[in-house]
Structure formats: C-alpha cells, structure tokens
UniProtKB/TrEMBL annotation:
Family of the protein in this entry: Belongs to the universal ribosomal protein uL4 family.
Biased segments, Basic and acidic residues type: 50-59
Function: One of the primary rRNA binding proteins, this protein initially binds near the 5'-end of the 23S rRNA. It is important during the early stages of 50S assembly. It makes multiple contacts with different domains of the 23S rRNA in the assembled 50S subunit and ribosome.
Protein's name according to its UniProt entry: Large ribosomal subunit protein uL4
Region span, Disordered: 43-78
Protein origin, superkingdom: Bacteria
Subunit-structure text: Part of the 50S ribosomal subunit.
Gene3D superfamilies, A to Z: 3.40.1370.10
Molecular function via GO: rRNA binding; structural constituent of ribosome
HAMAP family given in the database record: Ribosomal_uL4_B (MF_01328_B)
GO BP, one annotated term: translation
C-alpha cells in the first residue's frame, strides 16, 4: 500500500491518501527508463548546427597562382578547407536528424515506473487544488513553497486552466503541465510531483491501459 501526503487549498497538511496501485505500484525498471529518457532528450535536439562547406563560402573563383614555376604548392581555390576562410570539411549540417521513435506502450511504462519510484521515496504529493480568480504568481509561489519547501517540483493539472498556468509560469524550479502531457524526462528533472486531486483520474485514463 503506497500513500501520499495530502495538502489542502491553503497548503497545509490534511492527512494521507492511498495512491492507485496500477499507477504508483510498479517496480522501477532502470534500463527501460534510461532508454526512454535518452530518446526523449534526443527528440528535443533541434539539429540546427550548420557550417559552410567549400561550395558555400565566398570567393575562390580564380586560381590563387599559376600551377607551375612559383615554387609553391599547387592550389585551385581559396575555398579549400585547408585555407583560412575556406569551407569546413565534415562539419555539422542541418541534414542531421536526431529523432527516435519510442513506442507509446514503452513511454507509458517508463512514465509509470518513474511515478512509482517517486511515490516510494515520498516525492509524490497530492494537493486539493489551487484557486485564483486571476493570475497571481505571488499567491502561487507562497502556496507551492509551503508544500515543497522551495524545492523543485512539477504540478500536474487535470486540464489547461489559464489562471493556474499563468500563476505558476514564472516561478523558478516549478513547471505546470496537464496530466495527459507528462513524460519521464521532465519528471526526473524535478524532485517533487505535486498532483492536483482531480488529476489522478486523468493520469489513470491516459496512461493505464
């Protein structure tokens, strides 16, 4: 039986809740999580590094000097990679694609494995909810820091509530995402997972098949 601390809307402890076994009761599969996290990190690489090769740099239309009789080595173009200002040989190009395909079933299993491990280590917390008639970073920061003591955390929302997202957007070390958009890489980058109570059903619906 895995339990998590529950906090009320004021950020005060309000007891414990038993977490669903099908979400938080899995064994930690380190190899699987490692594979998925590396793939997700790779998929975020933009691949925009680019250098000019000898066909793209300026100049080089004229042979630097005649072929014979000067005592110098022969050259045909100033755009050669061995010249200063010439093209780059074997440099990065935008043709490189770092994307890796991860089966949905594998992604789900890795995510639940990370959630389970965090729950076992008491890093999963449940929050009754955050209410704001308008965006308030100050209010959001005061409440979340009462819960996780100024540590890093990910707030799991049942849906995309504009006021909540705007309230938490500028708080250092805190990110807010919908339950359906969670992934193993982002979870591992935060110490705590703070789940709004209404999000538990959304997690189960999305990731438990």
């Amino acid at each position: 039986m895995i339990k998590a601390l529950v906090f009320d809307k004021k950020g005060e402890k309000a007891g414990e809740i038993e977490l669903p076994k099908e979400i938080f009761g899995l064994d930690f599969n380190a190899d699987l999580v490692h594979q998925v996290v590396l793939s997700q990190a790779s998929n975020r690489r933009q691949g925009t590094a680019k250098v000019k090769d000898r066909g793209e740099v300026r100049g080089g239309g004229k042979k630097p000097w005649r072929q014979k009789g000067t005592g110098r080595a022969r050259h045909g173009s100033r755009r050669s990679p061995i010249w200063v200002g010439g093209g780059v040989a074997f440099g990065p190009t935008t043709e490189k694609d770092y994307k890796k395909i991860i089966p949905k079933k594998i992604r789900r299993k890795a995510l639940l494995s990370v959630l389970s491990e965090k729950a076992r280590n008491k890093f999963v917390l449940v929050w009754d909810g955050f209410e704001a008639e308008k965006p308030s970073t100050k209010k959001a920061a005061n409440l979340i820091n009462k819960i996780i003591k100024n540590d890093s955390g990910m707030l799991i929302l049942p849906g995309m509530d504009k006021n909540t997202v705007l309230s938490f957007r500028n708080i250092k070390k805190i990110s807010a995402v919908q339950a359906k958009d969670m992934n193993a890489l982002d979870l591992l980058n935060k110490k705590y997972v703070v789940i709004l109570k209404d999000s538990l059903e959304g997690i189960k619906k999305t990731f438990v098949k």
